[in-house]
Each structure stands twice: as structure tokens, then as C-alpha cells.
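Hello,

Our lab assistant flagged a job as stuck in the queue for most of the afternoon. It eventually completed. Since we weren't sure the result was trustworthy after the delay, we are filing this so someone can double-check. Below is the sequence as submitted and the structure that was eventually returned. Let us know if re-running is recommended.
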Amino acid sequence: MSWGFFFDNTRCTGCRTCEMACKDYHDLDASLTYRRIIDYEGGTWQRSAEGEAVPHGVYAYHLSLACNHCTDPACTHVCPTGAMHKDERGLVWPDHRKCIGCGYCTMACPYHAPLIDQHAKKSVKCDGCRTRLDAGLRPLCVEACPLRALSCGDIGELAARHPQAVRSILPLPEEDATHPNLLIKPSEAAAWALESGGHIANREEIR
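-- returned structure --
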């Protein structure tokens, strides 16, 4: 089984409810965030002869991102102790009994999912709310989203339900980097971004 997320980019308003629900459930302090919202935008504007600001190709969209529980996770390849591993459900998470806090996983992941807890000196990250899954519940981020932009499950079943989904939109890396178990329904703005480029508007927030 390969477990993953589906994200509807056409629904997300960037409200950050998923992010806050995750932080609350995992009792994370201000220095740690397992799920984060990326605000991506682009376009230009010009001043008209009348002094009005005229937009040209202006767009903005939001991307809710946590660990993608990749098929070929870079974090597991570089872990020297085997602490970072992929379990039988397909979830990627660190075994704190083995983790030495070296930080190799944080450097290897192109999605910046693993973090180092500076108090525990251990790697921490989204584990798909595996204890909730064991109890037959959904991850908190999925439960909390007011627009139902997130869902989760077996990636094959999700792909069958969403045949037009893609696995990468800007600013994410190409899918062949780690083969993420993330499916995205791209918005029209995401298509504009591919044509004209853009930038992360909240880089300081997600750093």
C-alpha cells in the first residue's frame, strides 16, 4: 500500500486551518510546523495614462504542503541509523529510539518536511497522523479543512477518483525527484504560473 494526500488547489483559500489543527494536535511550539501553507503569486501591473494601476496576468494561489510520504523518499536514503523509514502502510516517519538528530534528512528532502526539534534533538515531521489512522480516523489536517480541499488514502484509489490530478505545481520540484504520493487538482492560476512564472510571497513565514 502507498498512502498519500490529495489536494484540491481550486478550493484552498490559504486560511491555514489545516496548519493550526496540526500544530494543536501535535502540541508544536512556534518553531515547528509539520504542515504549512505556501502562497504563490505572479503577474505585473502598469500605470495607465489616467494614473490607474492596470494588472497584467496577475494571479495568486495557495498550496497546503506536509510530508508527501514519497515512493522513493530521499530522507530515508541518507539516514545513517535507519531511524527515518517507510512503514507497512507507506507512511514515512522517524523512529526516535534510533534518531541521533544529525539533520541529514532535513537537508535531503526537497519538500523540507523533516525538521529538527531543538529541544529533543531529534528529527520530527508529519507521520500522516498514524495513530489516528490506527483508530479509523482521518488526519487532523483533512478533518479540519473547512473547504474540503484535502483528502487522504491509498494513492492508487485517490488517482482513480481524480484522474486529472498532477503531482507537482509551482513551486514544488518535479515529481521524479522522489515520486511523491501527492495528487493535486491544479487551479487555473497554477497553469498561468507555468506559463509566466512567479514567486513565493510568504517565504519568511515558511522558512
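-- support follow-up --
The delay was a queue issue, not a problem with the job. The result is valid. DSSP finds eight helices and ten strands in the chain. The longest strand covers residues 53-65.
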